[in-house]
Task: inverse folding
């Protein structure tokens, strides 16, 4: 199986998502052959290096092994608590602290499991960092490509924010500005309307179990 991103996205909604999308699309005409190193770019390049290493060992690791290798890097690269807070909106604000902790943990499992599932083989792929540019509201956009020997490259941008000297990603965008966080927000709000935070926690863990290869173990 040829490894690569198995993305399913929808277009972003709201002023924040549209502003990020517009900023990223605007950088496409500014792409250079190489990006200068910066703290934000370094975070993404470390993450990409881990992805390539896991892809090369994908068969021997299996889904669970890939998950174990990727989970610490996903936690370092992404501000998972902020991402799930944005994705759940008013439901987060009304939730108890204990439920917030369980929700972040479930979202972290799903995020790491998703990468373990997407990057499940190696056939000569590589990552290239293309450009870094300013995004809205103090963010930086790190534009990258997944380069594949027998197919066109896939352009991906990471929306980066800085807090206390640490840069982390809070969204992933494709070249036309389609936002992963937007699709999660849309999906999660349907679940939240039906069953609240508790139902979402169950669903995130269930999906994570499937991706990691645990089935109905939980």
Result:
């Amino acid at each position: 199986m040829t490894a690569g991103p198995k993305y399913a996205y929808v277009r972003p909604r709201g002023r924040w998502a549209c502003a990020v999308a517009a900023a990223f699309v605007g950088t496409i005409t500014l792409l250079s052959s190489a990006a200068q190193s910066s703290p934000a770019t370094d975070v993404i390049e470390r993450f990409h290096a881990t992805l390539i290493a896991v892809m090369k060992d994908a068969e021997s690791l299996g889904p669970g092994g890939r998950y174990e290798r990727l989970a610490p890097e996903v936690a370092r690269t992404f501000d998972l608590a902020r991402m799930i807070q944005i994705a759940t909106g008013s439901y987060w604000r009304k939730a108890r602290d204990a439920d917030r902790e369980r929700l972040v943990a479930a979202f972290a499992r799903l995020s790491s499991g998703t990468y373990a599932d997407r990057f499940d083989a190696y056939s000569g792929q590589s990552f290239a960092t293309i450009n870094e540019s300013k995004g809205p509201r103090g963010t930086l956009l790190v534009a990258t490509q997944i380069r594949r020997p027998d197919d066109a490259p896939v352009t991906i941008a990471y929306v980066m924010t800085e807090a206390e000297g640490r840069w982390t990603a809070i969204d992933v965008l494709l070249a036309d500005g389609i936002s992963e966080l937007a699709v999660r927000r849309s999906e999660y709000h349907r679940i939240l309307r039906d069953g609240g935070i508790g139902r979402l926690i169950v669903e995130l863990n269930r999906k994570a179990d499937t991706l990691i290869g645990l089935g109905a173990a939980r």
Remarks:
- The chain has one domain: 22-211.
- The two ends are 28 Å apart (CA to CA).
- The chain has seven helices and four strands.
